[in-house]
Ubiquitin-conjugating enzyme E2 T-like
Amino acid sequence: MQRMKRLKREYENLEQNEQVSCRPTNDNMDTFRAIIMGPSETPYSGRIYEILLNIPEKYPYEPPRVNFITPIYHPNIDPTGRICMDLLNIPPKGSWTPVIGLRNILQSIMCLLMNPNPDDPLMPEIAQEFKYNRELFERKARMLEPEKNGTWGDDPGVRRLI
């Protein structure tokens, strides 16, 4: 019951976020679908990315499982959409605490898109490119066209972001 109250409150706060569109995919609020715009002045600028947040039963004591659905070329995100970010793991491997919420997670993902962490990569080859050949990294990141880019139709969350 407390889990549901918290998720409803977090959802209300997310509705006020102008950088991200996020809403539950069902009444149980066990999965949220987020849409983010690639940050300006990055290789992801102008692109739309879909992220799924799977909320565990023990939330907020356990972090959500978060995955990019839209393909992205990034040193901290693998081809299956897994994200390497301390915030998404409980200690001692990570820094998750119950005070962290969905908004914090999505803001941290935006920060990760703006500032990849090549020193703790999920994709070492991409991290090497990012560190030693930034031009090549940026070209490859721009070349990877998200499959769903531009096909969101009348999604009001996407319209609000554009």
